[in-house]
What we know:
Elements: H1 2-18, H2 24-41, H3 49-83, H4 85-94, H5 100-118, H6 123-134, H7 139-148, H8 156-169, H9 173-229, H10 235-257, H11 259-268, H12 275-297, H13 299-307, E1 310-313, E2 318-321, H14 326-341, H15 345-378, H16 381-390, H17 400-411, H18 414-432, H19 436-450, H20 455-465, H21 471-497, H22 501-512, H23 520-523, H24 544-577
Antiparallel strand pairs: 1-2
Helix pairs in contact: 1-2, 1-16, 2-15, 3-8, 3-14, 3-15, 4-12, 5-6, 5-8, 5-9, 5-10, 6-7, 6-20, 7-9, 7-20, 8-9, 8-18, 8-19, 9-10, 9-19, 9-21, 9-24, 12-13, 12-14, 15-18, 16-18, 17-18, 17-19, 17-21, 18-19, 19-21, 21-22, 21-24, 22-24
Amino acid sequence: xxxxxxxIPLAVALAMMTLQQRNSRQAGLVTxxxxxxxxxxxxxxxxxxxxxxxxxxxxxxxxxxxxxxLLPALLLYHLQRVTGGMNILTQSIARLTSxxxxxxxxxxxxxxxxxxxxxxxxxxxxxxxxxxxxxxFGALRVALLxxxxxLTTAWGAMGVAVVLxxxxxxxxxxxxxxxxxxxxxxxxxxxxxxxxxxxxxxAAVHRWWLVALAAAAILTGxxxxxxxxVGVELVGxxxxxxxxxxxGGVGVLMTRRAPHSQxxxxxxxxxxxxxxxxxxxxxxxxxxxxxxxxxRLVPPLRDWLQTHAVLELPAVHLSLxxxxxxxxxxxxxxxxxxxxxxxxxxxxxxxxxxxxxxxxPSALAILLFLLTAHVMQASSMTASxxxxxxSLGSRYVWISPWLAGLGAWLTGSNLGGTAMFALLxxxxxxxxxxxxxxxxxxxxxxxxxxxxxxxxxxxLAATSAGLKGQEGLLIRKFGPLVLWAIAxxxxxxxxxxxxxxxxxxxxxxxxxxxxxxxxxxxxxATPVLESGNVSSSLSRExxxxxxxxxxxxxxxELPLWSMMFTICIPQALSQHLGPIHAVTSPHHCRSPDTxxxxxxxxxxxxxPGWAYTSSA
Length: 616
């Protein structure tokens, strides 16, 4: 009975956003009011007015970690937009190669993740859609490619989703980030091949599949390494920059080998902005990266920043070093760039107004769901749901990614989904003995995939590509692929935490589904290439021998590569990390400032991102 009562608030939020088509702000407000009312009328969940106020204050304190990053990041983007800096950068990136398929990889695996890492909120869609339209793709194909560019939103807005997950669960932020990258690597690799197929069909996959796989590996493998070295704030920026550099380098080499393409590229560059304009447009991002690296990798400076100008409220577990948070360094880079460009007050005011209008609705929704999550935690509603999950035992691992995906889909952001279900994941882990680290990684990994199908994201992609009102078409084309990717996350998580031959067999079956001729059109989003969208990578007069090679790669080589890659990951991780079934216990759910990560191995408080692992 208590479990049913505890589910009611989540069911109300689900019904309002699906059946009644309400936005996340309205659903969050009603859910918060319902939860507060239940603390007064349901005796097992009773909270005194003081306890209720304290739990609400804790939720507001947690939201500061996120909101102090989002507003400066959005302001930086809109300032670049109104001054033309973003246009200069995107055009410069597009000129790195004349091959259309490589340009698509640059945009989807490089530029879009880079912009998302800086701003979040789906800004990457807005940036790359006009460039994809310039490449003469159809509107549907452009919308699908722009959605694929959202595959690394766990690192959006300088990793605030990972930071929030670590803060709510009380785990080291660097470990949450690194495991999120590992769990996301197979899906990113597969989706990179889907991106190539959408761009130029089998010909593009045949020519550039190794480049796509390498770029995806750099994007997620770099995130895995960088999470443990420079901190999660720079993970998305640096990994996407590495992917951009790799694909751009391949494009430049290919252009130099093709004189006719080089001449066409130079011809298209007439009238381009000079090099000084490019570096002036890139200055804010270069400064931001330099400042963040300096503040994270220089121990004396890092210690000083973490201990001075700290906003502390012990009653609500708030410790916010104002000089250390990414939002401060974004604002500093922003002010320097404004001075360098000589931006007028009118343009700055326009940018600030646009950033505030975009920030307010999402910030309000995130705040409301965070407040709801903390009240549910304080009133033992989350504990009741965790007790219900405990009845599933180790089988809870099968539904954990779907809960994460549900939250991200409902709220339209990985942050909102984390606010809804991170504490539930923590309670379930403590009851079932499953590894909280891997459940937290699945929370981010599945959430970033499900977010691509959220109404807000679909509306943004459809409207930007000229498909306004056709979000249902995008769901039909893109939905099976996203659901397949979340199922892959689920099976990977199960293989890592409870390995068995049955799970490995299911992984193989799942990976072969897109290779079946009858199901391939469903998973590849579009069944047939339009006649005007033939890949420029391979001429129509290609010999029959090359066509047969394409068929072999499409049917045999790529599926085998994907299967071997995915099957080896759980085994390698299990051997490298050792037993992980009983990592989580009530002792291990405490905040990182009061518990050891492993017996006799206390975490180093000077590691990057330590300030963000405060107790929720």
